[in-house]
From TrEMBL:
This is Thymidylate synthase. It comes from Azospirillum humicireducens. Residues 132-189 form the UPF0029 domain. GO terms for cellular component: cytoplasm. The lineage of its organism: Bacteria, Pseudomonadati, Pseudomonadota, Alphaproteobacteria, Rhodospirillales. Pfam families: DUF1949, Impact_N.
Length: 197
């Protein structure tokens, strides 16, 4: 299971006189991630390195640090914590002591990981969308059965001569059980068309 953040989180630490500020936020799209990166980059920092992952889209930047020492470790921290739809910016103010490539990897990756560990997270739930055409007589029983499926939404989308059309959105892992229940309630008469959200 993958997780995302509930809200923005910050973590700050000093390593050999350099100050590192990690900021992480939920990001539902690449545009949201890039906006957070722009807004969170500190103008007075020497480097604002970042990484984000939104589904299959992931990007990172070393922002002037030696290649592979900042952005990639930040992205690895995101992936290592099973996070998705998350953007992280780590800003560095140089303290006068060189950290070396290994030290930079540990500092950037460690700052990002510490920030994500401290953050409130929630699971990412995949939803299924079901279109149901049922008889008027079955509608109330179908609607009342939804109470045993937390996180479900239902709306009436139309009427036919024989009944009603419902749009039901529920967690994908519960869809098959719900479809069987609708089939039982309607004695096989309801038409269920499955889509993905």
């Amino acid at each position: 299971m993958m997780f995302t953040l509930v809200r923005t989180e910050r973590f700050e630490q000093e390593i050999k006189k350099s100050r590192f500020l990690a900021q992480a936020a939920p990001a539902g799209s690449e545009e949201e991630a890039r906006r957070f990166i722009t807004e969170s980059s500190m103008p007075d920092a020497g480097h604002n390195c970042w990484g984000f992952r939104v589904g299959d889209i992931y990007r990172f930047s070393d922002d002037g640090e030696p290649g592979g020492t900042a952005g990639r470790p930040i992205l690895q921290a995101i992936e290592g914590q099973e996070m998705d739809r998350v953007a992280v910016v780590v800003s560095r103010w140089f303290g006068g002591i060189l950290l070396g490539a290994g030290g930079l990897v540990r500092a950037y990756g460690g700052s990002a990981a510490s920030c994500l560990k401290a953050a409130a997270r929630e699971p990412i739930v995949a939803y299924a969308s079901l279109s149901i055409a049922c008889a008027f007589a079955d509608e109330a029983r179908i609607r009342s059965s939804l109470g045993s499926f937390p996180g479900t939404r239902v709306e009436t989308i139309g009427f036919t001569a024989d009944g009603v059309q419902l749009q039901v959105t529920l967690p994908r892992d519960q869809a098959d059980v719900f479809i069987r229940l609708v089939t039982d309630i309607s004695r096989g008469q309801a038409a269920v068309v499955r889509g993905e959200e």
